[in-house]
Design goal:
- This protein has about 550 residues and is of the alpha/beta class.
- The protein is built from 16 helices and 22 strands.
- The protein has an 8-stranded parallel barrel, surrounded by 5 helices. Strands 17, 18, 19, 20, 21 and 22 form a 6-stranded antiparallel β-sheet that branches. The protein has a two-stranded antiparallel ribbon with strand order 1-2.
- The longest helix is centred in the middle third of the chain and has 16 residues.
- It is globular.
- The N and C termini lie far apart (about 50 Å).
């Protein structure tokens, strides 16, 4: 995870018929209520991920920080929305509000709760039939961590093996974003504290063993073979083969990460490893093959849906022109992704995350483009990921404030209600100057964004997302089916067919602001979900930004 400006950039851092041979896949049983997680690999195409910064989700104790106990209170909300897997940002202690650079890997940030609260949370997640992925960035440590504090300028420290020093006197630790042998650099962390960020010595056998033990611990904390208290997988932030392109830690996929992932899967074969490839122009399949991870993020698809040029990392600010989708580009990326990923490896589809501008901002508030993109997010091949608040159309984009506060506007508090004084709203950055002054919580938009408001409106964006997750759950083809583009050379239409066994589903989306009429025989189709669609025997007419989702059962 990286966020970077003048002072800090913390890299926080998804016709011809193409068959991905998904019919070879056995349709895994959709998650049921259970207290223990199966010990066999599962088909993650059946999952829907909810990516959330827990500090901003729900506050249970009145300190304005979202916490683990608060999250337990809202698990039923996630089930109602239709998600199956929870992905947090890191939980460990850190001087940074986002927790990506640790002062202690093994402790839970006290603002989230205690270790006991953590285990209660994991147990509660599993009792609800949900899964939990833990986010990790274990390549670095910050000042305040005993490994660095005790070993800096102290070669005799018992922790000297853990930090990479480029000199024998421990005066020059390798630092993130800095040339070798640079003086210690102070990165500015919100709301103004200064921290150093240094490399661990990832080549050292002692560090490698420590990391293997550390990751293994979270898989089965009791070492009793019952994984109801363990994670279901990990998200590895900013995974690289040559860490930060310094030529110091090379062949990392095979030499560092592969043994860790293997150790976790030896304990629980169902453990799922999602790697955030550092180069967002890549599909991530090379990382998977070399490291033994299971999935990568579908960055090329996200760029295609947004009509943006790909970037190495960090998205550009939303264009003043909004979004102009190119259907053939989207088809091409989907087919390429299916070609690169096998029956047991996966790509995660997303519209926004904790590094990017909110989708509602990318499309300049265009309600139709929010809804059309949601259809692609949930119904295209891949594992869909919803970033918390996306289902409400929450807005936000990065700013330039000279610290990691830059990204707070895309990590704001989930709006359970429109009232900043209501309990539960996790407004940990409230009254914090420019960050708060530009918040959507201080705009008239908050009245429409709140969950309380949208749940009462059957035509709201929230209900649109809930309908789509239900469709995905009910129709196996949306989870496991082959993919075929439709009307490839027709401007203004994004259309595709997905087929699984005897089930065929069709999705047509008018991505333009003009009426579209396309030749289509709808006889035998059952409409699953539609808006502005007028089918006839030979022609489908779609109103501007209308859509038609239908099922056709074959013998």
């Amino acid at each position: 995870m990286r966020t970077f400006t003048t002072y800090i950039c913390v890299s926080i851092v998804l016709g011809t018929i193409f068959s991905c041979e998904t019919q070879k896949k056995q349709e895994a049983t959709i998650t049921k209520e259970a207290s223990a997680i199966p010990q066999e690999p599962i088909n993650w195409n059946n999952e829907v991920i909810y990516h959330v910064m827990q500090r901003s989700f729900y506050d249970s104790d009145g300190d304005l920080h979202g916490d683990l106990n608060g999250f337990i209170e809202k698990l039923d909300y996630l089930k109602e929305l239709g998600v199956t897997t929870i992905l947090f940002t890191p939980l460990y202690e850190s001087g940074f509000y986002h927790n990506y650079f640790p002062t202690n890997y093994e402790n839970i940030d006290q603002e989230y709760g205690t270790k006991e609260d953590y285990f209660n949370f994991v147990e509660a997640v599993h009792q609800k039939g949900l899964k939990f992925l833990m986010d990790m960035e274990t390549q670095y440590a910050q000042s305040g961590h005993i490994w660095f504090d005790d070993s800096y300028q102290n070669p005799d420290s018992e922790y000297s093996d853990f930090i990479y020093y480029s000199d024998s006197l421990n005066q020059f630790p390798e630092q993130i974003f800095r040339p070798s042998k640079s003086p210690l650099y102070e990165f500015t962390a919100w709301p103004g504290n200064k921290h150093n960020i240094v490399f661990l010595d990832l080549n050292h056998p002692r560090v490698k063993q420590w990391m293997m033990d550390f990751y293994s611990y979270w898989v089965d904390p009791n070492k009793d073979g019952d994984f109801s208290d363990g994670v279901d997988g990990f998200r590895i932030d900013h995974i690289m083969d040559d860490l930060d392109y310094k030529g110091i830690f090379t062949n990392m996929y095979q030499d560092f990460w592969q043994p860790i992932f293997k150790a976790c899967k030896d304990i629980n074969p169902a453990i799922f490893i999602l790697g955030e490839q550092s180069n967002w122009n890549e599909y991530g399949d090379e990382m998977i093959v070399k490291s033994g991870a299971d999935a990568a993020f579908g960055f090329p698809l996200r760029f295609a849906i947004a009509g943006e040029e790909g970037t190495h990392d960090m998205y550009i600010d939303p264009s003043s022109n909004g979004v102009a989708m190119e259907p053939n580009r989207i088809h091409k990326v989907v087919l390429e992704s299916l070609n690169r990923f096998s029956d047991s490896t996966f790509s995660v589809n997303f519209l926004e995350n904790h590094d990017t501008a909110r989708w509602a901002t990318v499309v300049l508030g265009n309600e139709n483009q929010k809804r059309n993109a949601a259809i692609l997010n949930l119904l295209l091949p891949g594992i869909p990921s919803i970033y918390y608040g996306q289902e409400l159309g929450v807005v936000g984009q990065t700013h330039e404030w000279g610290s990691d506060a830059n990204h707070i506007p895309v990590r704001e508090a989930f709006p359970w209600t429109a009232n900043v004084e209501d309990p539960g709203n996790a407004l940990w950055y409230k009254d914090s100057g420019p960050v708060w002054d530009t918040s959507f919580w201080k705009s008239d938009l908050i009245d429409q964004l709140s969950l309380e408001h949208q749940k009462k409106d059957p035509n709201s964006l929230w209900w649109h997302y809930q309908k789509l997750t239900t469709l995905r759950k009910d129709q196996a083809s949306f989870r496991l089916g082959d993919y075929m583009p439709l009307f490839e050379n027709r401007e203004g239409i994004m259309a595709f067919q997905r087929t699984y066994k005897n089930e065929r589903t069709i999705v047509l989306i008018n991505i333009s602001n003009e009426l579209q009429a396309v030749p289509m025989d709808t006889e035998g189709n059952t409409t699953l979900y539609a808006k502005g669609a007028n089918p006839s025997n030979t022609t489908m007419r779609l109103a501007p930004f209308g859509y038609y989702i239908a099922l056709n059962k074959t013998n």
